[in-house]
Amino acid sequence: MASIGHNETAAVEAFDDDAATAVEKHAPGHVQLPLAPGSHPHNPASHDPDRPDISFPFQTTNTVEGGFTDEYRVTSKTGYITADLALRPVPSRYHKLPAVLADPEKAFRLKQVKLVTWYENDPEDPRNWKNAYKWYITFVCALSVVAIAFATAIIAGDFGGVMEEFQVSEVVVALSVSLMIIGFGIGPLILAPLSELHGRRPFWVVPFVIYIIFNIPCALAKNIGTLLVSRFLCGLFGSGPFALAGGAIADIWDNNERGFAVALFAAAPYGGPVLGPIVGGFIGETVGWRWIFWVNMMFAGVVACMCATIPETYAPAILLKRAKRLRAETGDPHITTEQELFRKSLKEIVVETAIRPFQMIATEPILTLMSMYASLIYGLLYAFFFSFPIVFSEGYGYNDGITGLMFCSVLIGVGLALFVTPRLERDYLRRAKEKGGHADPEDRLIGMMIGCWFIPIGMFIFGWTSPPTVMPGGGNWVGPCSAGIPFGFGMVVLYFSANAYIIDAFPGYVASALAAKIVIRSGLGAATPLFISAMFHNLGNGWAASVWGFISFALIPIPFCFYRYGKAIRGKSKRAV
């Protein structure tokens, strides 16, 4: 690195020469940079080094100064790699060298810095744990998301009881759902960077316990204000699994082997809310709405105990602990990790978590449209929690328990999607292989192009098989009930593909891109319950559902347009790869 000149071109040449490898250009604007000498992928069969590393501490590492590194995913015989050869540019259209490498003096000092890596077959590497144990962790991660999402909708099982006791309108009671969803949107913006700094394990337990505690004032509330504030705090502290589960799954499975694991995680935020009204309906019908929260608290307590068994899986946290231990044992101050070497200031972390997501929403059409599309589907799911009682309780005269059972159709659709999403992942890997091992992000859109048709189909079936178009009698309930099957299927398949496309399109800004998606999703999810009942009562079941059907139908061209023109759009983006 001593040969680095005073301009970035010379620096790039020196970087490539020291790495003793040629830069391979796969497409205009795309450069594959080498791994550091002496390091290699954990398992070439299961790891694709060109795909985004979700375990990288995006929000707390100064990538402008230090760039990216494969430190957290590669293995080496010595247990470390030299920093001057490990750092590389952030993947984006602007292939800019990290500031520390562009400065000859700083780059020279990096030759002495040793970035800690995993050893070959390292027993502390979560990817080397036994498959049975990894599947247990995956199950607990998915179950934790189900448990929290379940809590958002369980109160929908007995809105009438809350309205009657507190003498408030349905819109006010709907706030108990909306405020918890808003908490889900805010919580990850706080918990995600904290988990990068301190590891994931503490935040599996502490926020979950606080969430459980705030279920108590929900159950004992003497007025509607207490209930609403407590529900918001439940959402805020209960958002831990949303911030941690996806990353934990990425920690223990390499990126080419996590297909079904990610499918479970993708289905959990949608399957959980569907279970809520099924359980809540029978509880409210038999023992009253307050017991809804006691039962939810018991369920959450069991899940919290299981979450407490999850060990630390976050590679930067494990390797940082190892680096501190090695420094103490050897006395070598140059042993460190990139996150420790280039840690962001508090101000920079706040900008990364609270400002950049909104900047990207305003400037990145791919992120904005894909997030809005996925968020609309999320909002429609919560619309079902208010429209199903209108159709089945008011139209068919069913009690809350039987109305809740109608949501089983959505669960069937979600279950069918679990058989499809792993196949979509295998199809993506096949396309990557056909393209020389480097698929385009647009290859992720196949699932969206399949799933997008099922959303309007489900909405039109629901609207035009409900009263008064099809009056109650005999087995006529099957029509509106069955609408949940195509909706549940399309919902999960579409979200799975949209999420993967956002990650692959913005590999250098994954944390900000996903935070932007969460903000939009929570906003639409929180807004929908506030007007959906009035919409169905004023427009009628057929036309109210059709409005959403037409909106979702109008959005169908989005994945097709990005499949065709996405590469050109990414070429004009500052942050897309």
Automatic annotation (TrEMBL):
Keyword Electron transport: no
Record has Transport as a keyword: yes
UniProt-annotated location(s): Membrane
Gene Ontology molecular function: spermine transmembrane transporter activity
GO CC field: fungal-type vacuole membrane; plasma membrane
Ranges for domain Major facilitator superfamily (MFS) profile: 137-569
Pfam families: MFS_1
Region entry Disordered, spans: 31-53
Membrane topology: Multi-pass membrane protein
Keywords on record: Membrane, Transmembrane, Transmembrane helix, Transport
Membrane-crossing residue ranges in chain numbering: 135-159, 171-191, 203-222, 228-253, 260-279, 291-315, 366-392, 404-424, 445-465, 485-506, 518-537, 543-565
PANTHER family in the cross-refs: MAJOR FACILITATOR SUPERFAMILY, POLYAMINE TRANSPORTER 2-RELATED
Protein name per the record: MFS general substrate transporter
